[in-house]
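Q: Give me a backbone?
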Amino acid sequence: MQQIPGAWQRTARGAGLLAPDGSAIPTIFAEMSALAASTGALNLGQGFPDEDGPQAVLDAAREAIAAGINQYAPGRGFPDLLAAVAQHQKRFYGIDLDPGREVLVTVGATEALAATLLALIDGPDDEVVVFEPYYDSYAACIALSGAKLVPVPLRWPDFQPDLDQLASAVTDRTRVILVNDPHNPTGSVFSSEVRDEIVRLAHRHDAIIVTDEVYEHLVFDGPHVPIATLPDAADRTLIISSAGKTFSLTGWKTGWVSGPAELVSAVMAVKQFLTYVGGSPFQPAVAVGLRLSDAFFASVASEMAAKARLLGTGLRAAGFDVSSPAGSYFTVVDAAPLGATDADAFCRELPARAGVVGIPLTAFVTPAHRDRYATLVRFAACKRVEVLADAAERLAGMAR
């Protein structure tokens, strides 16, 4: 088959997204999910729940379909969802938004991220600072934009960055500081010192802050603190979030971007040529979700924290060193105490050893930094309690 040359292909190959022959490299997630299916192992690798979201939200989607809300939505999104996002930001964080100018509905947070980077990056001289390990689509989106990815390592076991390393990474070439807090894949929540330093550096180097906050309601010792709420941060910060993680509706792919009107408009200019608009009947349903009671949102965090503790108990009983998560779906462990020297090989063997699937943290890092994370493994706790109890028992069985 003829290969198609192009700047993106060269950039993507350098980022480890393409094989030398130009073919796509299968993700570790696809490989491990297939291994779980073929072995009957419990899949704690991919971060998607195995339970549906709130009944009121599901019912609202059915009602929208029955009412004929099945054609294209307005470009920015249905006004009621735009209003619901603005109300949510005011209710939880005190952020005032003009829903008609400062909010944009997207096809999940991943499209929001892609459209944002494509909108903000001017050319190959621009740099995007990310915290490593990072959600794997970051590298792909940065490669698509043509910018250079500049990683700042997060350190085991608390996964906070060194502030001096952060300051060295942010320069006048930095166009975007990309922040994922609460953090995937590590489950960490950044300290106030880290958040303050991000804002200081963004001002010093005239960078834009893009915050991926999809786990905002899964902070175990809350509340979540958006960087946009810090002094002098809002005018240079775009917030990305979505319904998927909060409402256990990852398949709905309904997200949003909010922030200064001129930045949101730039993102919309790109987004309209990616997906045009998202799924119409999901938008009024997500608006219902965003207006659910305080008790619902508190329960989301408390239930996930309990699941993380249950999973952590099994991981410790198995002999792993465990980094206790502060939020998100994920728990990271060090498999070195079990004799592991390479997390990739360990994860491929784990289904046979314990009947459980995890993901090597090396799937989330640049090739140059693999050694820093060589024996670390990520497990997802976003499963039914009985599944996690079974996984904990299976893992603990490795030590017997």
About this structure: The longest strand covers residues 148-155.
